[in-house]
C-alpha cells in the first residue's frame, strides 16, 4: 500500500504554493487506475473535468466534475478513471491554517460535497493557477480560501441534506428489507460513509437503529390488532427468535411484548 505526502499520482499540470496553501492541478489518463494509497496529510480534491470511481472500505463513489472530496489524513482509497480520464485540483493546507476550528472539523472526516458555487470557483482557481502576473498568487489564495470557507459552511448546513428524505422513504416503504449502506448510498447518490455519518447526525441514531425502530413500531401495531402468537409477530418483524425480539422491544418501549399487548387490550 502506497503512502504519499503532498505528492499525487498522475501527470502534474500546475503547482503553486502561496499563503499556507499548496495547490496542484493533475491530469489522469483515461481508463487508468491508481492502487490503494493514503496521504500523510488531510487534503481537498476538487474534480475539475472527467471523472472516476473511488473505492475505499465503505464502498464505491462516482466522482464527477464539480465534486469536492475531503480526504482526512490516512484515508485509504483507490481510483478507476473513466475513458476520458480526469483532471483534479488538490489543496493542502499548512498546519497553521488547518488548526482553525472550522477547518479542523471539515478535514476530520471523509466526505463528498457538492457546493452551488463550485463551478465558479473551479474556473477561478484553474485560471489563477495558470496565470503568471504579479496578482495571480493573491487571487489564487482568495479563490481557494473562499472554496474552503464554503466547504466548512456546507459541512455545517448538511445536517438535513436533501437526499435524506429519499432514504427515509425507502426505509419506511419496507422496514423488513435487508438494505446495506452501499445500496442506500447508491440510491441517494452519496458515499455510504457520508450517509451513515449524516443520518446519525440528523436522526440521532444510526440507520440500523432507525430500521429496528420501524420494525418494533410494526410489531406494536400487530400486537394491538390481532391475537397471533408473539413468536409469529416477532418473525414478521424480522427477528430470528422471540427472546431477541423481547429484549429489543423492552429496550425500545420500556415493557415486554406480553405486557404491551395486555395493556392495549385493557385500554380497548
Separate helix tally: 11
CATH architecture assignment of the largest domain = Sandwich
Can you give the mean pLDDT?
A: 86
What structural class results from the helix and strand content?
alpha+beta
Contiguous uncertain segments of 5+ residues? none
- Number of separate structural domains: 3
- What's the helical proportion of residues? 40-55%
**Main beta sheet:** 9 strands, mixed
Question: Which band does the percent of strand residues land in?
Answer: 25-35%
Shape: elongated
> What name goes with the CATH superfamily of the largest domain?
Regulatory protein AraC
Query: What series of H and E elements makes up the topology?
Result: EEEEEEEEHHEHHHHHHHHH
Taking Cα atoms only, what radius of gyration do you get, to the nearest Å? Answer: 24 Å
Would you state the CATH class of the largest domain? Mainly Beta
End-to-end gap: 64 Å
Look up the CATH topology of the largest domain: Jelly Rolls
State the total count of DSSP E strands: 9
Amino acid at each position: 500500500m502506497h503512502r504519499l505526502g503532498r505528492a499525487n499520482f498522475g501527470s502534474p499540470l500546475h503547482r503553486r504554493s502561496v499563503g499556507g496553501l499548496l495547490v496542484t492541478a493533475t491530469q489522469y489518463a483515461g481508463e487508468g487506475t491508481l492502487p490503494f494509497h493514503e496521504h500523510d496529510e488531510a487534503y481537498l480534491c476538487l474534480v475539475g473535468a472527467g471523472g472516476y470511481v473511488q473505492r475505499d472500505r465503505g464502498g464505491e463513489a462516482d466522482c464527477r466534475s464539480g465534486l469536492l472530496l475531503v480526504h482526512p489524513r490516512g484515508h485509504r482509497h483507490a481510483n478507476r478513471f473513466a475513458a476520458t480520464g480526469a483532471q483534479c485540483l488538490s489543496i493542502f493546507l499548512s498546519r497553521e491554517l488547518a488548526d482553525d476550528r472550522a477547518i479542523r472539523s471539515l478535514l476530520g472526516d471523509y466526505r463528498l460535497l457538492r457546493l452551488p458555487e463550485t463551478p465558479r470557483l473551479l474556473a477561478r482557481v484553474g485560471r489563477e493557477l495558470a496565470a503568471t502576473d504579479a496578482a495571480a498568487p493573491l487571487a489564487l489564495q482568495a479563490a481557494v480560501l473562499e472554496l474552503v470557507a464554503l466547504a466548512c459552511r456546507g459541512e455545517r448546513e448538511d445536517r438535513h441534506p436533501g437526499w435524506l428524505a429519499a432514504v427515509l422513504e425507502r426505509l419506511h416503504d419496507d422496514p423488513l428489507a435487508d438494505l446495506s449502506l452501499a445500496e442506500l448510498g447508491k440510491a441517494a447518490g452519496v458515499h455510504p460513509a457520508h450517509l451513515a455519518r449524516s443520518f446519525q447526525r440528523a436522526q440521532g441514531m444510526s440507520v440500523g437503529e432507525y430500521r429496528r425502530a420501524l420494525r418494533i413500531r410494526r410489531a406494536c401495531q400487530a400486537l394491538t390488532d390481532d391475537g397471533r402468537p408473539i413468536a409469529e409477530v416477532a418473525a414478521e418483524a424480522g427477528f430470528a427468535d422471540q427472546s431477541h425480539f423481547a429484549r429489543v422491544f423492552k429496550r425500545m418501549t420500556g415493557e415486554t411484548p406480553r405486557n404491551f399487548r395486555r395493556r392495549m387490550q385493557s385500554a380497548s
